[in-house]
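Batch manifest, entry 17 of 40.
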Amino acid sequence: MHNVQAAKIFYLMNFMTALASSTIFTTYSIYYVTELGLNPLELVLIGTVLELTVLIFEGITGVVADTYSRKLSVIIGMFILGAGFAFEGSIVWLQDFGPMIPIVVWVLLAQLVSGIGYTFISGADSAWIVDEVGEASAGSIFMRAKRVALTATLVGIGVSVGLSVLAPNLPYLAGGLMYVALGLLLIRHMKETRFVRPPRSEKSSHFKEMRRTWTSGARVIAGSPLLLILVFVTLFSGAASEGYDRLWEIHLIREIGFPDRSFSMAVWFGLISAASTVLGMLAVGYTEKKLNMSNERAVSAAIFLLTFIRIAGIISLFLATDFVWALASVLAVSVVVTVSEPIYATWLNMNLRSDTRATVLSMVSQSDALGQTAGGPAVGWIGNRFSVRASLLAAAVLLLPILGVFGRLLRKR
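Output type: structure tokens
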């Protein structure tokens, strides 16, 4: 009975965060490009600040989850995220009070707040549910949670488009309120029954406890060739995703164009997101039925194939000369990323110990953030210096080492 209740809370968490995220990010590029006037380099720098924040704070907040409470870490993160997004949605008004401060600086400050919020949730949410339901049940719960999140994403797309038509900053304000509401719900309904807090010596300070937990997590990664490989993979994946995620919308806006001017950009991005979400739901459902998540070779093969399709999709977008071609490429990449996430989460959690799970997950997230921090500005500079197309090609090239790593793992097994 307890497992069922914990799963329901996890589904609620995924539904609400997906709803808020979809509300904010379906039309965020319209707010950034048309309302705030940001250029390609500034767009990538915004992501870089977010990832740099994650890189700095992820280890600290992951240790908080393993040392004190996963529930506490998640709830703190929800409130900080809500504040960060509400702040970002208010920038369009804040610039009237501080005209001497460039708009991009306001956005960077908002990203700093949001990044801290993300780090409190990252790793703590999945570590909590794996502890509550057990590793054997986690895989199916992650898959179902993904389907729940995709359903919420569809709802959020409509909300985002409707609000963006009224004012481009409204999706940010609405999304921020959703995160705050979820934080309040979790205070009341989220239970933490299986987490065992590490014993504390009377002479041990909080800092020493956290340092001990972090050191233990670092040893887990250093002692596992598989986790070391994963850290390497996430470095390149992070660098590639930062360039692609921040620039494909501006590529459609400025270099490809939309075929029907009777639709606003908000409606077009809403339609693209809706198509991506529906295709993602179908793909996740198919994968859930066909892929044996307990077979490590099958999972490695799936990641290899998905990475190959992702590279092909980004190169296809780089080569695209018309809207239909570009749209097909964007949808292919989106579906691949959607399917990859629950596979990655399940596989990773199966290879981690409970006492350092949140810490190690945070360290892996730090590796991704490092890749985005180091690779993102380079990809953005290429877009500013040459073209957004060139940035997309650079993102595809950065994914090639991942293909080599998983190909090697498959040959060894």
